[in-house]
Amino acid sequence: MSKSVVGNGMRIGWIGLGAMGLGMARCAARAGHQLVGHTRGRLEHQALVTDGGALSGDLDAVVDGAEVVCVNVFSAAQVRSLLYDDGVLAKLAPGTVLVLHTTSDPVLARQLAAGAPRMVEVVDAAFSGSPEQAAAGALTMMVGGSPNVVTRLRPLLDTYAAFIRHVGATGTGMQLKLLNNLLFAAQVRLAAETYRIAATEGFAMETVTDVLSRCSGASRALGIVGRDGRVARNLDGMRVYIEKDVAAAIDSAHAAGIDLGILGEVARGFGHDLVERI
Fold it and tell me: How far, CA to CA in Å, does 131 sit from each of 24, 57, 116, 127?
């Protein structure tokens, strides 16, 4: 069921129409927000127009006149390139809110806030969920920033998130998200090892999933890894995202002097070698 907003909605500039970002932007457009998405001409982006949004290949046109600019690109390096090298941050008008969705080091969100033009607010709105949940407006979101600004953003965030929690100042959304990603990576590694051991004992992958998902050892990772009985394929498909996020979490913790303990040790074990063993 689509969510709707009162009146003409907010003017939104959206940068990052990938696997997650496109579904999120479509939710916002369907709800009545005036959204312009940045595109490099990919055919699937036309779905945004079908839902009432607009597309532009010109970054200046995307951010011009926007009340809110959402950035949802793949990596922190791309965020820096976009906002600093391409000059998007410096072009934001007073009163604009920059929403950082890209999973990244909390320090980046704080640096953006410190270096933003006068009267430009920065909020880190980290999310958890699948592309299907993004398209359905059912993400979980942890948000860092000024309480007043976060309240102002709720009519937008509510269109693609079913659960939203303001967790503190700018950067805290990413802190909690990275902790979640470490926990998920550790659970994925444990689930993968469970399937590997079960296979050596002669169990079908579907049987392992069907039974253990109803037991005390169940986890969301177990179901995701074992989906359709194709464990190796599922692990390989999520590897690039998990490796990126685990690296960001470990680097962030190291810089802050935080001991990740056994959580960090288990999460570090996710990678190509694990996939090859399955």
Answer: 9, 23, 30, 11
